[in-house]
Amino acid sequence: MSKRDTINKLIMKITEFEKAYKHAVDSRTSKLGVTPSQYKVLKALDEKGPMKHKDVSEITLITKGTLTGVVNRLERAGLVSRTQDAKDSRAQYVALTEKGQTEYARLEKSYRKIIGNIFNPESEEKLKQYITNLNVLVALVRQGETD
């Protein structure tokens, strides 16, 4: 196998992992009553506090157009609230409501169990090795961006 073939195989395996992981997590989290995108927004708001739509979009990697619909549904469910930015009337802040904080705590507990079940068969040492390997790959990709 040539180096080029090996690189292609590596990229295919990374893509395969991402799809398999996303499917495994999404199929389980959908049973919790929220979409994966809604979960990402709730998680970001819980970790960072109130933020502008633009910042939520950047953190969650959800496009601004899609994010509007996600936030609308969360707001209708009473899980988030929106307030106008005092300095920029075009900008809005999104924040967890008290109900949203309670719901996120419930979801996070279930989510941790889901993730634990997926990765539990592996030893902690093996998981740390995966992290090390992924860090190397991320560094290679970032280095390639600047060349």
From TrEMBL:
InterPro entries documented for this protein: HTH_MarR-typ (IPR000835), MarR/SlyA-like (IPR039422), WH-like_DNA-bd_sf (IPR036388), WH_DNA-bd_sf (IPR036390)
Signal peptide: none
BP-aspect Gene Ontology terms: response to stress
Pfam families named among the record's database cross-references: MarR (PF01047)
Gene3D superfamilies linked to this entry: Winged helix-like DNA-binding domain superfamily/Winged helix DNA-binding domain (1.10.10.10)
PROSITE patterns documented for this protein: HTH_MARR_2
UniProt domain HTH marR-type: residue ranges: 7-139
GO molecular function terms noted in the UniProt entry: DNA-binding transcription factor activity
Name under which the protein is recorded: Regulatory protein MarR
